[in-house]
Amino acid sequence: MKKKKINRTDLVVLTCVSILLIYVIYRLTIGFSYRWNWSVMPQYLFRFDAESGKWVPNMLINGLLATIRISIWGTILATVIGVVMGLCRTSQSLFLRLISRTYVELIRNIPPLVIIFLFYFFISDQIMPLLGIDYLIESLSGEMEGVLRFFFADPVYASNFFSALITLATFEGAYITEIVRAGIQAIERGQWEASYALGMSQWQQMRHIILPQATTQILPPLGGQFISLVKDSAIVSVISIQELTFMGTELMSGTYLTIEIWTIVTALYLMITLPCSLLVERLEIYMSRSRA
Amino acid sequence: MKNLFRILLVITLIFCFTGVAAAGEIQKKLIRESTIEKIIKSGKIRVGMSTFVPWAMQDKTGKWIGFEIDVATQLAKDMGVKLELMPTKWDGLIPSLITGKLDVIIAGMAGTPQRALKINFTIPYDYSVENMVANKEVAAGFTKPEDFNKKGVTVITRLGVTANNTIDTLMPLATKREFPDEGSLVQELINGKAHAILISSPLPAFTALKYPDKLFFIPTPLKSYPISFGVRKGDADTLAYFNNWITVKRNQGWLKDTATYWFQSQKWKSKIQ
What we know:
The structure holds two protein chains of two kinds. The relative contact order of chain A is 0.12. In chain A, helix 3 runs antiparallel to helix 11, helix 4 packs across helix 8 and helix 10 runs antiparallel to helix 12 (258-291). Chain A has a two-stranded antiparallel sheet. By secondary structure, chain A is an all-alpha fold. Helix content of chain A is 78%, strand content 3%. By secondary structure, chain B is of the alpha/beta class. Chain B folds into two domains: 35-125 and 228-271, Periplasmic binding protein-like II (D-Maltodextrin-Binding Protein, domain 2, 3-Layer(aba) Sandwich); 129-224, Periplasmic binding protein-like II (D-Maltodextrin-Binding Protein, domain 2, 3-Layer(aba) Sandwich). The longest helix of chain B has 32 residues, at 2-33. Chain B is elongated and about 95 Å long.
């Protein structure tokens, strides 16, 4: 590996950036009339619970955990929707293609905020009773309630959580559909024809020949989409899901410590997305190496 | 002929009875499907509220406190059910109630005629008065609300609250801007990007107290609004129950004591920060 040297251009750029940074900090502290109060911030992350004598997560960390939960479940559900719809999109049946095309175009051409409102207030109202989730939550035993709280949300907010989850997954699923479709269509025609010539059925061609090759194409952009999902999960704060952004705005309404809280919220989001970004980068390198 | 008469008689009688029976059935169904019945049956009441100091806010431990919280807690206690607080964005409260995600709104909501077209309101359990707090530098020399009715003056308030209406009628020349929560509202005023905030008391007075070097309070009371619980339309039982509850609590003096604690004193301040 070549050793990196700092040349003159780098130095100029570095100085410019640091001057800009110092200027911004200067404006924030001097020119900007804001009463900083960082000292109360740590208690919103963790607090000492006098009753149990332990440190327990407070509002912001609870919000972060909710964001992580909704992101993980959203990723799983969106991937399922995306793969199924992506297969439909490349299917030979006109009906399936019509369904998946309609789904993708509908979702991709509506602003996410509008979809969330529409879905949460009108559609999920029809879907949720159908799934019987409310009924299920109520019939849970004490132990199962703990499980529900750990993996999803507090039983009180569980119904809202599932509505938000379905909304987010439906929304992100459309983008994953397109990623899967592009991955499948990127496989050259000859592969289909060759496997057909070997006497494979449509499903076998897909399962043994096309999908394994398409996966290497799909994975890197899919990773990028998962990072988007984490970020987009902030949108569900508008329907009052107790995730990080919502907790942040709630805290701001109560304390007026706007900038401190947004700064912490930003840092917490970065804590999730940056490692994911690095992972995706590693994955891309690995994939390109294995392909070569 | 006689036979025909008999048959007609029997048919009429059947219709009469089913009519009576159906009316009774409808009444039973109405009672069974009323929100109040559902609350008692499920043993929990889902109350929609929104952060608005000191109506509803989270203390240092994340616990909900405030005037509305006290009201909701007492209500649940009197009904013998569990209280489930559902913190909801202000503009999402009414849709959430209509679509059945909430049982009742207890969020310092004023029962304005426009809102009453969408949901029903109980008799008032409190009254809110609107006040203003202004920036000392930008709004220098402004002393009364009329001074703000000028071109180039910016008055800000919260999205979807009654104060929007007040600004439109009292200060038609001023520019109005809306923010979704109080934090950004106060920040905007402190930064001097707006001349004043117009919103329900006690926020203006308390904010002016908190930043005495930057802001000042304009004590002129503007419009006053009755504050009510919001319930779904077509549910007379629930409305009647809450009205009764409010009357009892008012006559006991409980509502007034609670309101005095939250709105006149600042004893709760240390719980927040």
